[in-house]
């Protein structure tokens, strides 16, 4: 048995390496397991307790900030001006025979005017003393940053529910049908959950308080719409990264809809199903989840209110990259590994001394042989005759080198054959492209001249003999003239289409807004005749072919005017930055496109309507696609029948040379071809 083991150890390099590696591996694993196991549990408990306490502090601070806004309204309502105004209003309404009817009549007049129109009656309320005080003290006085206010709207209503003062024009005159008025009038105060205000186009909370006179009798209700970001950001802004730089924080409603997040989000969007299931188990805790293919550790706590305010059960969720949380443990593991490596080095030295004579010399010969083969000497062979694995490797190496030489010789022969075939293909493609360019020249000169003659004589025939033969003859002549005109226009469009890749200009930086202005100037008559309104957002500077970009905008806007609905055309051009590109949009309110025909739009000569109803050659959108593709972009349409269309196309936001459709060739008139030597 001993002789067998000794013989195996003497001949097998694998056995020698395996014994040394196994010893080191056992040492490293033992030390690493002991160090991580002894510290990971206590460390994670500490992180969990600190993070949950942080989330609890965040929810408590937010409830405190919300309650502070109710106190602000309460202090403001103690002023004599607002109390006197409400007392006078209530007295005036009390003298009316039918105050409800009066309010309904005023509300009907109020809502019948356009949103931007302010009547004298509205002006009187908006410019009143209380309204001015509201704007100065509550709106402008609570500004927390440039254009960033805590109160976005303030409304004061009397005991009948009629608006008495406001920071800006409201949607309605009657307020007693609003939740904030009803709850505050009945209970003294009210704080709503987060909601979206269509009038203000923001998310916030309705904070309302009942107003009393000096005798304690209720006079009315004041409501302030609080921008939710103003009360959330001060509590959550820097909290997420207070423990770890990878920290993120999300504030959710009681039904798990997003109120605020340090990452991009859509207000009141639902949290993921996995996250929602975690919150159903308890009011606070932790769990592990995936985000963008990264494992994150989550800690959460539910709001319990502040003082007399019970809160709305909002959830504060703090998360960290688990790898960063575990980094101290990783550091400890690395230290342990370093200590273990010290032990391993001693073992490696012994292994090196053992393997040096049986491995190092053969490997040196392999290295030299490999270097010669790398430089093209496929005749090189190694001369190692040992009976261990290295000897077997040397034999296989020599066989491999011989086969490699044979394969290289075969590949060289195939490369030579394919090079000849490729050159022949290039030559055929160049000839084909030259023929295509020659056809374009013929279409623009030789074909158009006889076509112009046909069209001219047909028009002359129509002018001289119209009404002198018979009605059918006049109709036939009209058809012929119209056909010749459309054929000439189609040839011109086809010529333009074929020249996009071969006659384009080099790309240069240009202001897209200026190019759009040129296109609108060219379409000025069509825009005026259709009573169209064309607007655009700020447009970027891109690198493109100015003439083709002008043609692209002109075709898309002209299509929007042509395919308009009964309403005057309203066209808007905009651009937004994408991933390494600009995405341009041309939006209209026209007749729209049935989704089943979208794939046909950009195919040449494909039409969705008759030429009699909408004149054209069917090449315009195909030309647009060809121009966009020359700029390495994409073009598509988003539309529904009867709801208008939005054409979008992209232009890369980087330096690129124009893409040609094949080879650039010179167009030579027939009979003037260059002679080849």
Give a concise summary.
The chain has 677 residues and is an alpha+beta fold.
> What is the mean predicted local confidence, pLDDT?
78
Helix content: 40-55%
Quickly give the structural class: alpha+beta
Name the poorly predicted regions: 656-677
Number of helices: 18
Largest sheet: 6 strands, antiparallel
Radius of gyration: 41 Å
Report the portion of residues in β strands: 15-25%
Number of strands: 20
**Which of globular, elongated, flat, extended, rod-shaped describes the shape?**
flat
- From the N-terminal CA to the C-terminal CA, the straight-line distance is 88 Å
Q: Layout of helices and strands, plus pairs?
A:
Blueprint: H1 2-11, H2 13-76, H3 80-94, H4 99-112, H5 120-126, H6 129-139, E1 143-145, E2 148-149, E3 151-158, E4 163-166, H7 179-187, E5 189-191, E6 195-197, E7 202-212, E8 218-227, H8 228-236, E9 248-252, E10 258-261, H9 273-279, E11 284-291, E12 294-302, E13 315-321, H10 322-325, H11 327-374, H12 389-444, H13 448-465, H14 471-498, E14 508-511, H15 512-522, H16 524-529, E15 533-536, E16 541-544, H17 546-562, E17 570-577, E18 581-587, H18 620-630, E19 635-639, E20 645-652
Parallel strand pairs: 15-17
Antiparallel strand pairs: 1-2, 3-4, 3-8, 5-7, 6-7, 7-8, 9-10, 9-13, 11-12, 12-13, 14-16, 17-18, 18-20, 19-20
Helix pairs in contact: 2-8, 2-11, 12-14, 13-14, 15-17, 17-18
Kindly describe this structure.
The relative contact order is 0.07. The chain has 18 helices and 20 strands. It has 677 residues and is an alpha+beta fold. Helices cover 51% and strands 17% of the residues. The protein starts with a helix and ends in a 25-residue tail after the last strand.
